[in-house]
């Protein structure tokens, strides 16, 4: 991702409100309904093959959350950037169902 260092996993939440629609700071990473997308680090995920985690996802600082909200002025296109099929360690794959902060999500 271009908005932070490290490996981040794009998620589409199924039952809860997220932060974005898969586009962060004008860069399209994946597509989902507005307000249903989030990014999480691997340690924040559990379920369906992911290593169980005792780490709860902390809320994003307000400045980062605001920066992640889609804006009309920062449109770099509508084609999402290519996604990796799996995380670096191979524990999470595209389309996999996971839990993030107690919420169901699909890896995008």
Note down, in words, how this protein is organized.
A five-stranded antiparallel β-sheet has the order 4-1-7-6-5, with no helix packed on it. The longest helix is centred in the middle third of the chain and has 7 residues, at 62-68. 6% of the residues lie in helices and 24% in strands. The protein starts with 7 loop residues before the first strand and ends with a strand. With 108 residues, the chain is mainly β. It has one helix at 62-68, and strands spanning 8-13, 23-24, 27-28, 37-41, 45-46, 97-100, 103-107.
List keywords for this structure.
five-stranded antiparallel β-sheet, 108 residues, mainly beta, 1 helix, two-stranded antiparallel sheet
Summed up, what is this model?
The chain has one helix and seven strands, in the order E-E-E-E-E-H-E-E.
């Amino acid at each position: 991702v271009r908005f932070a260092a490290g490996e981040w996993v794009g998620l589409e939440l199924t039952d809860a409100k997220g932060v974005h629609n898969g586009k962060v700071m004008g860069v399209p990473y994946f597509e989902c309904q507005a307000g249903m997308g989030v990014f999480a680090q691997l340690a924040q995920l559990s379920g369906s093959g992911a290593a169980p985690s005792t780490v709860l996802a902390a809320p994003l600082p307000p400045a980062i959350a605001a920066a992640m909200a889609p804006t009309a002025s920062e449109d770099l296109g509508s084609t999402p950037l290519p996604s990796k099929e799996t995380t670096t360690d191979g524990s999470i794959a595209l389309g996999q169902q996971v839990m993030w902060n107690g919420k169901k999500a699909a890896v995008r």
